Amino acid sequence: MRILLLNICFVIQSVTPQTNKNVLTLISDLFDNYSPKVRPTVIQDDPIQLDVSFYLSSVNEVSEVNEKLVTTGFLMLSWTDELLRWTPSDYNNTDTIFVPQNEIWKPDLVLKNGFKKFEELGGSFYYLQINHEGSVDWLPFNVFESRCSMDITNFPFDTQKCDIKFVTWSHFADQIEITKSTKGIQFYEFEANGVWDIIDTSSDIKKEDRESEVKFTIKLRRKSQYFILNIILPIVFLGFLNMLVFVIPVDAGEKMSFCVTVFLAFAVFLTIISTLLPTSSDNTPIIAMYLIVQLVYGVIALVITAFQLRLHHRDEEEEISKYWVMVVRLQRKMRCKKARVTEIVVSELTKKGSLDNEQQNNCRAQEKYEWKHVASTIDFFAFWSFFISNIVITVSMFSASSSQ
């Protein structure tokens, strides 16, 4: 019976929870001679090993103009405070306590490549977790605004690599040594961005000039579907409308007005999408260069159309130069167009034996071209030149940018 009572007492004593007095006594004993101004190592020549991990919650903004990356997340900083150790059994098995961040020593880690002034991580309402072995965990949450060099040449098929750098500002590397992050970049309740996808993350440690630095790298790829539907396809379609001016007959009287309308459509569309295109003085997007090429095509089409109308309405009595005659004949050969009236008459008379070779040549020599034939020839060569060059430029530009 006595043994049973002893066992019951032992069980009751072992499951007795910690009270506020236990924690209060523990904190009083720990901080009796503790100062947050002193590095928490018994031997002050020993460096403090600081482990830094980054938990990313969202990518808020990627600004190409300001070259800025805005992210939301928190850091997990872990180190050992040799001055905050105790035996749990002395305090009713209390093995973990939480202390406000301003009451213990903490590393002066700051965002090195930030846009704002250096600010302390966390806040007065943050609590740090300390276990009986002196291990301290600090989780400061923040919105980080960091500088990021942008290359928008391949917009909207571009990828960007941005670094978020943290450094111990006052302490040297031999006092606070940032070790290789055990977890690197992790995701915490991550919310996907509507414009950017995260395709890779990494972390790296650098020690230079007694400075200890941890760098978190995020590789982003732009989601291009919106820009394809709202920018690229309209530009490509308008570009192919440029060449249709050479399909409209000159006698229709609509060539110049159609050409001007397409050119004005390009100009208006350029003003509309200018707000969608990223701006930078260091590099120009391929799509902006493509738009300029299409504007140049529009100007060339206007010049060719005006010159063509001028030739079409020339006096028929004015002789056509040999150059234009050669061009017209070349165009007819390329189109395999041999069934002109003169050719038909010569062929029929030759079959009947009414013309010898010399007469055939004389008959063909008297073949007369008009200025309207010259205008039609210009349409033919201009259309195919625009069509082929437009396809080559479109394919080469967008295939080069999308393959990056």
In short:
This protein is of the alpha+beta class and 404 residues long.
Describe it for me?
- This protein has 404 residues and is α+β, with helices and mostly antiparallel strands.
- It contains 9 helices and 12 strands.
- The strands form 2 sheets. Strands 1, 2, 3, 5, 6, 7, 9 and 10 form an 8-stranded mixed beta sheet that branches. A 4-stranded antiparallel beta sheet has the order 4-8-12-11, with no helix packed on it.
- α3 (225-243) runs antiparallel to α4 (255-273), α3 (225-243) packs parallel to α5 (286-312) and α6 packs across α9.
- The protein is rod-shaped and about 120 Å long.
- The termini are far apart.
- The relative contact order is 0.10.
- Uncertain runs are 1-15
Give a count of the beta strands, DSSP E runs of length 2 or more.
12
The helical percent reads 25-40%
The total of helices stands at: 9
The H-and-E topology, N to C, reads as HHEEEEEEEEEEEEHHHHHHH
* Integer-rounded radius of gyration: 40 Å
Structural class: alpha+beta
Q: Provide the residue-averaged pLDDT.
A: 82
Globally, the shape reads: rod-shaped
Largest beta-sheet details: 8 strands, mixed
Strand content: 15-25%
User: Span between N and C termini?
Assistant: 82 Å
Attribute tags:
404 residues, alpha+beta, eight-stranded mixed sheet, 9 helices, rod-shaped
